[in-house]
Amino acid sequence: MIFSMITGTATRRYEERSLLEFQKAFGEEEACLEHLQQMRWQDGFMCPRCGHDAAWLIRTRGVMDCKKCRAKTSVTAGTIFHKTRTPLLKWYWLIYRMATDKVGTSVAEMQRLLDIRDYKTAWMMAHKIRKAMADRDARYTLAGLVELDDSFFGPPGHTLGRGSERKSTVLCAVSLYTDAKGKRRPGFAHMRVVEDASARSIGAFLESLGCGVETEQGRQLLEAIQTDGWRSYRKAAEDKEIVHYRVVLRDASDAGRLLPWVHRVISNVKSVISGTHRGVSAKHLHSYMGEVCYRFNRRFWERQLFDRLIKACVSTPTVTYDQLVSRESL
Ligand SMILES: [Zn+2]
């Protein structure tokens, strides 16, 4: 079938899929296009020119053809699939793997498995998907108590620790909440590459997480931080007028036990980078951290992860190769 009628009815938001269900649903290019169309207009299609809610999906051209005014709306324009020459089927497999592989997806392996013509194309696709993940997570703020720590990423063999110049400094935050049984649980995670571990950098990071934002009840959204007590954290908490809890570390190995969640997220990023990607330049570090946080923040929706990531991919503009190689960060 070359085209099918689409009406403005809302579709189910996110399907749950196992690998077999994924394979069954997306065996052909047409199925991917139709799904992409549904995810893009989850609340039902509406013609951007006349507001009519019924259109034909012309599969050969990937456009919606308004039944009333005949305006053509591209399914992929304004998304990461804009002007792609790679079949959607290959995109779908890469997105499925990136959504579900906890240890990260090897781009070289996916290029080979999916017959993508060159490594650069596959590398770009993966970065576009990571950007969609990061854009989606940028909408999250952290509330209540937040576990906070710093870490260093870079080539092995150089000095470790605060003040190290050859490594990138990274801040990691995980919000905590208390469940019905009184047990402390992790909420959302965020990470960022910063210039240094100064109070100023920590303060700016806290602001980006929602520090300084007041709730409707007039309380601070981000109320307190829990850290190893490094003086910059103390100073940042003072500056931002939030509570600072210090956990007492007797030695470095205590950090994993006393600040467990930030340490779990940081070690996830380290294993993704060292295992799958064999090291990552400082420039792209943030996007690998974003990928790990994206999956961590959606760990309760594991079977919906594919649909959720497709939604992220159709909700964000694309990034070009020049932007990726020339800019410090995206
Ligand atoms: Zn129209």
Describe this structure in words.
With 330 residues, the protein is α+β, with helices and mostly antiparallel strands. It has two domains: 3-137, no CATH class; 144-288, Nucleotidyltransferase, domain 5 (2-Layer Sandwich). The protein is built from twelve helices and nine strands. It has helices spanning 19-25, 29-40, 88-100, 107-113, 119-137, 199-209, 231-240, 255-258, 260-276, 282-297, 305-314, 321-326; strands spanning 3-7, 54-58, 63-66, 72-74, 144-153, 168-178, 184-194, 222-227, 243-246. The chain is globular, with a radius of gyration of 22 Å. The relative contact order is 0.14. Zinc ion binds at residues 47, 49-50, 52, 66, 68-69, 71.
Total DSSP helices? 12
CATH topology of the largest domain: Nucleotidyltransferase, domain 5
Mean pLDDT, to the nearest integer, reads 87
Instruction: Please mark out the parts with pLDDT under 50 across 5 or more consecutive residues, or reply none.
Output: none
Q: What's the multimeric state?
A: single chain
Derived structural class: alpha+beta
Overall geometry: globular
Largest sheet: 5 strands, mixed
One letter per element, helices H and strands E, the order comes to: EHHEEEHHHEEEHEHEHHHHH
Q: Give me the CATH superfamily of the largest domain.
A: Ribonuclease H-like superfamily/Ribonuclease H
Radius of gyration: 22 Å
List ligands, each type once.
zinc ion
Beta-strand content bin? 15-25%
Helix content: 40-55%
